[in-house]
């Protein structure tokens, strides 16, 4: 019997207060037909990324509950962090996994957006495949000005939310909800504390300024380690792979005498993306999921 499965990766603007983090994550625990796959909090970003999977309506309901929790415990007027954000619950992407079309996931996001605004009075913007305007497909465009610039942004009729009035929630700001393909959140650490250099590297590789089609990139400082980070979203790893992003950063960093000292994946990563990396660096021929021991054990 077919069973529709969706993934959701809600991002919350809290990465430092463990008690608040647990309250948010608890909304996803012990829910029928919903599995909490992963959650990661980052102090510098001051951000929590949760990954869940399950039946569409049950996933939507769990996310709705978590938004209510976050709204009550996160005050954006006090929030400081390195990651761009527009609200206490910054973004909620839904990804079709099995036996569900992108069109059906878009409808699911619209249901959630309507319910969030009706109950919590948080203005909702739809993005990616759910976007009602072409200029709202890109999350970065919606985030321009961040939480601090929301009041001014919402004065413009062109930025009327998809659900709600042109007025931010007084403590939770706004929220961005949408349907999209799976992406990889991938960050690369550099042995420099010069954020201007890192910003130039990020600019060179991201699509919006002439780089790779499926790379969105920015720069972040990690002051306690005296390093900086190129932070990326690889929006289609089948066309722009992780190894290509890694090599592009290494190539651009060389001109500044800067080296890569490590990298990280935030959240979960498709196995195919790692197979692609292994095939490239090890020169493997004909390597695929069928060559993975654990994959064969699960069959």
From TrEMBL:
Keyword Membrane recorded: no
Class of this enzyme: transferase
Keywords: Cytoplasm, Folate-binding, Histidine metabolism, Transferase
The protein's annotated pathway: Amino-acid degradation; L-histidine degradation into L-glutamate; L-glutamate from N-formimidoyl-L-glutamate (transferase route): step 1/1
Classification via SUPFAM superfamilies: Formiminotransferase domain of formiminotransferase-cyclodeaminase
Location in or out of the cell: Cytoplasm
GO molecular function annotations of the record: glutamate formimidoyltransferase activity
Highest taxon, organism lineage: Bacteria
Occurrences of domain Formiminotransferase C-terminal subdomain (ranges): 182-296
Keyword Cytoplasm: yes
Name of the protein in question: glutamate formimidoyltransferase
Organism in which the protein naturally occurs: Romboutsia faecis
Gene: ftcD
């Amino acid at each position: 019997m077919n069973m529709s499965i969706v993934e959701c990766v809600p991002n919350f603007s809290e990465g430092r207060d463990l008690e608040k983090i647990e309250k948010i994550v608890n909304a996803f625990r012990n829910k029928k037909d919903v599995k909490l796959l992963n959650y990661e909090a980052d102090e510098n970003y001051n951000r929590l990324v949760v990954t869940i999977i399950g039946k569409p309506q049950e996933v939507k309901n769990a996310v709705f509950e978590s938004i209510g929790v976050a709204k009550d415990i996160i005050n954006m007027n006090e929030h400081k962090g390195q990651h761009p954000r527009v609200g206490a619950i910054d973004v909620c992407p839904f990804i079709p996994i099995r036996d569900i079309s992108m069109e059906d996931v878009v409808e699911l996001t619209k249901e959630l957006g309507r319910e969030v605004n009706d109950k919590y009075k948080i203005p909702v913007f739809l993005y990616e495949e759910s976007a009602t305007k072409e200029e709202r497909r890109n999350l970065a465009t919606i985030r321009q000005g961040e939480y601090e610039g929301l009041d001014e942004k919402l004065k413009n009729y062109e930025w009327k939310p998809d659900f709600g009035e042109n007025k931010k929630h007084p403590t939770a700001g706004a929220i961005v909800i949408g349907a999209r393909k799976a992406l990889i959140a991938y960050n690369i650490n550099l042995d420099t504390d010069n954020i201007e250099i890192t910003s130039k590297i990020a600019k060179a590789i991201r699509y919006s300024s002439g780089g790779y089609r499926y790379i969105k990139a920015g720069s972040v400082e990690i002051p306690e380690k005296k390093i900086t980070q190129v932070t990326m979203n690889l929006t289609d790893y089948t066309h722009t792979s992780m190894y290509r992003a890694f090599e592009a950063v290494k190539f651009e960093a060389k001109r500044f005498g800067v080296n890569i000292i490590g990298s990280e994946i935030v959240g979960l990563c498709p196995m195919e993306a790692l197979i692609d990396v292994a095939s490239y660096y090890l020169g493997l021929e004909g390597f695929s999921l069928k060559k993975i021991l654990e994959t064969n054990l699960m069959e």
